[in-house]
Design brief:
mainly alpha, 16 helices, Growth Hormone, Chain: A, 433 residues
Length: 433
């Protein structure tokens, strides 16, 4: 079957729901440390709260990939999963920021917050992974870099909106300070509005995108239809037979995602101390720093969107990968030396280059090394290269923080070193099928 090229807007529609999903994800990544610190968590324990999100992704995303490979409904193969995940995410987003409002003790509020976080991240993972699979399913090899760059652009646009919500709500007069142990209304309203946008965006993709029926899918990917009737191999067998790109890109992923885990965990505490001169989580300065984290992450998203437009212009994917990670490393390291809140905007714009590459290039390299068979399962398994480094980094976060002197800003030097190691690891990547 001739692989007809998709138009720009067809590729846009495939990924548009990612915009809403990423708003939810950005609200989580920018505010989890702030929420748990407000509830009473010790800075040296903050990284442990970040183990749960990647752990749930490690469990859920391979299962979504495996079972969606075998699914076919009137809505399609992947869309039922993203729709179900979005519905659950919307419900949990209305609960998580209220963990301190039920009259529970500190320990009880944290347990409630952890359970809510577990369900939120599980549902976001269920909703997020199908978008990567839809590109692998419906886009030919020659267009995948562009398709994943569009997805990266929408991802960062969603991040931009989610990151800015708290400071925008504070600017229009919504309370940014709350009683001790409670989350400010700026954060609560951000989660409520983010939930509404999420479901609307997913509905857009649901109605605009028509997935290929099984026969057309088999023809598009050159799969023998009779072979699909055989018993599907186990995930372990698929993992053993994974292409070299799976493992070599996975090594790069390890360093990159560990670096960003430390950024998400320690930015609030780092800039509260270096720019606002406070470590008191109940103070107005700490909450102002929390809002500024959203601005910095938004600048990172803008930098990432702009760099996503540059990446396809590189003739060599690996060169684009290395350059992007090294620019991000400079951005991370500079945070240690820059103690002015506005100067930090430049640092996080540079970090955006690495983020753009991480969102687009690993999936371009991997899906081009796969046949259409079992692509969902492989993408689900590949999520382990995102989750495992975050789990490892989170488990070691408190120890690493002590080793670098206890100042949270020092973790940005660690993150910079990790991105340099990731850039070095790119040389081992095998990019062909």
């Amino acid at each position: 079957m001739l692989k007809t090229k998709l138009t720009f807007w067809q590729m846009w529609n495939i990924s548009f729901g990612f915009f809403g999903v990423q708003i939810a994800y950005s609200l989580q990544s920018a505010n989890i440390s702030r929420i748990f610190a407000t509830l009473g968590a010790d800075p040296h324990d903050l990284s442990f709260f970040w183990i749960l999100p990647p752990l749930m992704g490690l469990i859920v995303q391979p299962l979504v990939g495996k079972y969606s490979d075998r699914t076919w409904t009137r809505l399609g193969r992947r869309i039922p999963y993203l729709f179900l995940g979005s519905i659950i995410a919307v419900l949990v987003m209305c609960m998580l920021p209220n963990a301190g409002n039920f009259g529970l003790a500190v320990s009880g509020a944290m347990i409630f917050g952890l359970i809510s976080l577990m369900f939120l991240d599980t549902s976001i993972n269920v909703a997020m992974q199908p978008f990567k699979m839809l590109v692998g399913d419906m886009v030919g090899e020659e267009q995948k870099t562009q398709a994943y760059s569009i997805q990266s652009f929408l991802c960062n646009a969603g991040s931009l909106v989610g990151y800015l919500f708290p400071i925008l709500f504070a600017a229009i007069g919504i309370a940014n300070v709350a009683p001790e142990g409670q989350v400010p209304d700026t954060v609560k309203y951000a989660f409520y509005i983010g939930a509404a946008i999420l479901i609307l965006c997913v509905l857009f993709t649901t109605f605009k995108v028509k997935e290929m029926p099984p026969k057309e899918y088999a023809e598009f990917h050159g799969i023998d239809p009779d072979k699909k009737e055989e018993k599907a191999p186990s995930m372990l067998k698929l993992l053993v037979n994974a292409p070299k790109a799976f493992w070599t890109v996975g090594l790069v992923q390890f360093f990159c995602w560990a670096a960003f885990l430390y950024m998400w965990t320690y930015t609030n505490g780092a800039i509260a101390e270096t720019c606002w001169g406070t470590t008191d989580v109940a103070s107005e300065g700490y909450q102002q720093a929390g809002n500024w984290v959203g601005v910095l992450f938004a600048v990172q998203a803008v930098g990432s969107m702009l760099w996503a437009l540059v990446i396809p212009k590189f003739k060599n994917v690996k060169t684009a990968y290395v350059v992007s990670l090294l620019i991000g490393a400079v951005g991370f390291a500079s945070v240690f030396f820059v103690h002015d809140q506005y100067a930090l905007l430049a640092s996080f714009a540079l970090v955006g280059a690495a983020w753009a590459a991480m969102l687009a290039l690993p999936f371009t390299i991997l899906t081009n090394s796969l046949s259409g068979e079992h692509i969902g399962t492989y993408l689900g398994l590949f999520n382990g290269t995102i989750c495992l480094p975050q789990i490892a980094a989170a488990a070691c976060g408190g120890l690493v923080l002590k080793m670098v002197g206890g100042a949270q800003v020092s973790m940005f030097l660690v993150a910079g070193v990790l991105l340099v190691l990731g850039a070095v690891a790119v040389r081992f990547v095998k990019a062909n099928r």
